[in-house]
Write a structure and sequence with these properties.
By secondary structure, the chain is α+β, with helices and mostly antiparallel strands. The protein has one domain. The chain has two helices and seven strands. A hairpin with a 2-residue loop joins strand 2 and strand 3. 30% of the residues are buried.
Length: 161
């Protein structure tokens, strides 16, 4: 792996470790699965219950990358081999969304508990980004779901290499 690839890998690895820790300690609880997820979409298959009261998944994935001499703006006329990269990442968490056997919504109390876990995850991921990444530009938080028994959201952010 070349220098930029190693730098990206180490920055992403540090962020993943931090996100997983913050989701467990400050967020909605330890997720079933937490790590780097390659590809354009995260499979929600890992969101389900795994053991005991543990549920959900946390992830960091690469969304986009481009040359950027004026971080985080995309270079309009890049200088070959000289313009640094900006990498867009998604930092997300999904939690189980319990549904009744008959397809009806759960009680308001259950919905509130799920909502509290999602809000705790949202702020825990922001803490992880803020505490573990030196130079970044933060995008928006996007709620996701409910779909397939899961609900959550993700932050987008850019890092510079």
């Amino acid at each position: 792996m070349n220098g930029a690839g190693q730098t990206l890998a180490s920055k992403v690895a540090e962020l993943v470790e931090c996100v997983c820790t913050y989701l467990s300690t400050e967020g909605g609880g330890k997720p079933c699965w937490c790590g780097f997820y390659p590809g354009s979409e995260v499979s929600w298959d890992y969101c389900g219950s795994c053991s005991g009261d543990t549920c959900g998944m946390g992830y960091v994935r690469i969304v986009d990358s481009y040359q950027s001499s004026n971080f985080p703006n995309q270079e309009t006329d890049p200088v070959r081999c000289q313009s640094p990269l900006a990498v867009q990442l998604a930092v997300g968490a999904l939690r189980c969304m319990p549904m009744n056997e008959d397809g009806s919504l759960p009680t308001e109390a259950v919905m509130w508990e799920v909502g509290l876990a999602v809000m705790a995850d949202m702020t825990a991921m922001l803490q992880a980004i803020d505490c573990c990444v030196d130079d970044y530009a933060l995008g928006a938080y996007e709620p996701q779901g409910p779909q397939g028994g899961c609900v959550g959201g993700q932050w987008t952010m850019w890092i510079s290499l």
